[in-house]
Amino acid sequence: MKRLRPVVLARAALCLIVVAGTTAAAQPPVDAAAEDGEARGTFEVRMAPAGTVGDTIGAMSMVKTFSGDLQAISNGRMLASGDPAQSAAYVAMETVTGTLDGRSGGFVLVHRGIVDDGEPELLVTVVPGSGTGELAGLSGRMEISVADGRHDYVLRYRLPD
What is the Cα–Cα distance from 23 to 88, expressed in whole angstroms? Predict the structure, then answer.
C-alpha cells in the first residue's frame, strides 16, 4: 500500500461521508414498527485533520450542530482509509449532548461506512447503554443524507417509559 498524506486521507474521509450519505439505499432498512420515535432535522459539521494512524489511515476530529427534533452539539473522532470513488471505509464515534424531542441528556453514536467497488453502505447506531439524563436507555439508528451541501438526519429511536 502506498503511503498517503494526512490531507489526502482527510479528503477521502469527507468524500466517503458524502458518497455514503447521498444514497438512501446504502443504509440497511430500519424496522419502523420496532421504534417508538422519529426525529428529523439537519446538521452542520466541521471537520479537521487530526493526524494519521500508520501510513494509510487518516484521523479527523469533528464537531456537529444538530437542528430540528434533535437540538444538540456533538464532538467526535473519525478514522478513514481508501479511495471513496472505488473502495474505502470509515469508522467514527461522537458524543451527542442536548435535547431529543424535549428530553435532555446525551448519548454516543457509532458510524461504519464502507464503499466497496463504488457501492456505498452506511450504518449509524446509538451505542447501547450510552444514554444519560432523560435519554437513559435510548436505542436507535440514524440515517444521514447529503444533497446540495445540506446534511439531513432521521433518527429512529426507542426510549423506555
Answer: 16
Q: pLDDT tens digit string along 44-91?
A: 999 999 999 888 899 999 999 999 999 999 999 999 999 877 899 999
> Does residue 87 contact residue 106 with C-beta atoms inside 8 Å?
no
Q: Which parts of the chain register pLDDT below 70?
A: 1-35
**Environment class of 2 (CB within 10 Å of its CB; exposed 0-12, middle 13-18, buried 19+):** exposed
CATH tag for 6-158 (out of 3.40.50.150, 2.40.350.10, 3.40.50.2300, 2.40.50.140): 2.40.350.10
Give the C-alpha separation, 67 to 30, whole Å. Answer: 22
Residue type at position 61: S
For residue 134, the one-letter residue type is E
